[in-house]
Each structure stands twice: as C-alpha cells, then as structure tokens.
Design goal:
Layout lengths: L2 E5 L4 H17 L2 E8 L12 H19 L8 E8 L2 H11 L4 E5 L14 H8 L4 E4 L10 E6 L10 H10 L2 E8 L11 H4 L4 E8 L3 H11 L4 E6 L13 H7 L5 E5 L3
Length: 267
C-alpha cells in the first residue's frame, strides 16, 4: 500500500480526513494525492461563463490548503494536488482506476453533502463506482498506528483475494486482527471456512456472538478491544446492505471515533 487518494471539499470534516491521511502516508512512506472537484451549472441567460471564476477560486482554496499541509509531509513521503472539473463520484472512480490507488480516504460528512457516509450519500456511490478500498474517517478520528483491527464479518463466504486489503494493512502495521463474527440467528454462526489459511501470516483471533443489535455489537466490541480501525466487506447482501438504511444504531456506529475501512466483495 503506497498510493492514497483524498477528495476534499475544503470543509472541516474533509480537512480532518486529510490530516489523518497525511499521518498514515508518513507512516507507510507513500504518495498521497489530494483532489477537489467542481461543477458548473450552465444557463441560457448567462452571457459570461462562470467556469473560470469557479476554477480560480477552487485553485486558490487548494493552494491555501496545501500550504498548511505540505510542511506536515515527511521527506520520505510525497504529496500532490489537483483541481478537476466533473461529478465527484465519476472523477474519483476514474482517477482511482487510472492511477491505481491502494486506498481512498474520506471524511464522514462534507459541507456540501459530498462526503456523508452511507446514508443517502455520495460516498456510498463512490464505493459502488470503484473497487479501491475506502477508509471513512469520522470527525473525532485522530490518527494513531493501526495496531488493533476489528474485522466484522457476517455469514457470507470470502475468497482469498477479498482478504488482501486487510492483510496488507495488518502486515504493514504489525496489527492484531480481531475477527468478529456477529449473527442474529444461531444457525448462521459457523466458523469461517479457510479463515486459518487466508490469515495464516497475520496475528489474529476469532470471536463470535449472536445478537439482534448487529451494529451496536460491532461498536461495543471494537471499543472493548481498543480498535484503531473497523474493517468490513461491502456486499449487496447480509448486514452491510442494511448500512444504506437509516437508523440511530447505525448512525452511532459511524459517528464513533473509530475509522471504518470498507473493501469489496468480488461479484
């Protein structure tokens, strides 16, 4: 993991995510790109295009942001920035594929609604647009070395390549992985096939519970073990599908101080 992409709308929340990303990038001696997207609404009664003004303002805001961020970057890490015209979802998806980023880091809320997570959000659309793992950093999220990872799973099967992003991060930070299997039905509680094979070169432990409050259970367990990161696999079934449905419990999970890593099940 050496290349990170961080979209920004210059809000406080996105700045918190950027600071987290800079600290992580310093730890892995990688390269980080910061992007801001803008759109222009055209009207037939407009004599002069507003695009030059909008772009200039965006570039000036980016220059101010980078002036404060660049001094934080260590000499064995690097950073770049770009202002891009276009829909944020399309731009992020296109850039993540073209530049082969290993990770996208976003804040959980943005001033324009661009960076809200899961609940009717563009971030959910970004996760569907790209196969790149996404790390959502909450307002309270402060970077610290990723020593403890809670990997929350349901009863859906996993293949070897679906463990790769988790293994990469765990090996990079020498992390302890707490595999937390939570189900609402006791009949679904089975030890994951091939878990021992796929995580053989990582330090991990397996934990399970049956509880109807799935998301609350994940949150409580993560706090109990001092998790620095919660990891989940995005799939269009199981408990992850329910994340797009609003509820107070799920809001509490994603408004906790623990960053959330989402990677993708192969369809």
């Amino acid at each position: 993991m050496k290349r990170i992409l961080v979209p920004t709308d210059f809000s406080e929340i996105s700045n918190i995510a950027l600071q987290y990303a800079v600290a992580m990038n310093n730890s892995i001696h990688g390269h980080l790109d910061v992007i801001h997207t803008y759109t222009v609404v055209s009207r037939t009664d407009m004599i002069i295009s507003m695009e030059p003004v909008i772009r200039q303002t965006a570039e000036e805001d980016m220059d101010k942001l980078m002036a404060g961020i660049v001094p934080m970057v260590l000499k064995d890490a690097s950073i770049g920035s770009e202002v891009v015209k276009g829909d944020p979802v399309d731009v992020i998806g296109r850039m993540s594929k073209k530049n082969q980023y290993d990770l996208i880091i976003m804040g959980t809320q943005g001033s324009s609604g661009i960076l809200e997570v899961f609940i009717g959000s563009t971030t959910l659309a970004v996760m569907r647009q790209t196969e790149t793992p996404l790390l959502a950093v909450p307002r309270e999220g402060k970077y610290r070395p990723v020593k403890n990872i809670v990997f929350a799973i349901d009863s859906g099967g996993l293949s070897k390549d679906q463990y790769e992003p988790l293994r990469d991060i765990a090996k990079m930070f020498d992390s302890q992985i707490y595999v937390f299997h939570v189900a609402e039905n006791p009949d679904d509680m089975k030890y994951p096939a091939d878990l021992d094979l796929y995580l053989a070169d990582c330090t991990y432990s397996y934990h399970s519970t049956v509880h109807d409050d799935v998301f609350g259970s994940i949150n409580r367990f993560s706090k109990d073990v001092g998790a620095d990161l919660i990891a989940m696999i995005r799939r269009d079934k199981g408990f992850f599908k329910r994340l797009s449905q609003p509820s107070q419990t799920k809001r509490e999970l994603f408004h906790s101080e623990i960053p959330l890593l989402i990677f993708h099940a192969k369809q």
